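Something for you to look into today, if you have time. What I am after is a single protein written out in full by you. I want to see for myself how the chain folds. Could you add the entry underneath, on a fresh line?
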Amino acid sequence: MIDFADKTIQARPLYDMFIAVPRRYDLVNHVITWGRDKHWRREAAKECVAAQARTVLDLCCGTGDLALNLAKLAKNNVEITGLDYSQPMLDIAAKKAKPLAGKLSFVHGNADELPFPDGYFDCVGISFAFRNLTYKNPLAQRHIAEVLRVLRPGGRFIIVESSQPRAKLIRKLFHLYLRWFVFRMGSLLSGNKGAYHYLAESAALFYTATELKELLITAGFRQASFRPLFLGVVSIHITMK
């Protein structure tokens, strides 16, 4: 495993939170989404490999689920890399990836200083971490600029992220679910109350799918589109450099 995160990573927002979360991270994700997170990541992985990309980055890969889906779906000549700044997350990802040895690699690094050349990737995917990079994050513009930098012209950026249902009643119920069930269950299972308070509040206050589309276009992407999933509580966004 390559380590590009040997400097002042502790100064970056949310660092301590995601170092502390991993012990039951996957379990909590499956419980609070009733297992739907597995399907949503598979759908995002399908979009990543749809354009026959040769180089794919799983940005903020966490415990590696999107990268693992990519490795299972992609052909043998596809280079798949997962990057995260949480070493405990990457340790879990590496263990999960042992049956797929040789098909993917993991890099310890930062989303605001991606350790890759300009235009290196045909596709960048991110699953349920774009909110962390952009919601009240002082480095938000830099994070997006780095994705643009490492994508080749015509390369695709695939985001699967929590969203805001259009129907007012469903949106209110979703926010109640986040603040009541997700916060309490996440806190109970993980022992990290702060992390799941952040998750619930940031998801409840995050962009609508249309607002996120506009954010990407304003940042320099083109042909942005989105596909709502599960009554609109999650959306897959597809855009190009």
Summary: The chain has a mean pLDDT of 91. The beta strands are 2-3, 55-59, 79-84, 104-108, 121-127, 151-162, 222-229, 234-240. The two ends are 29 Å apart (CA to CA).
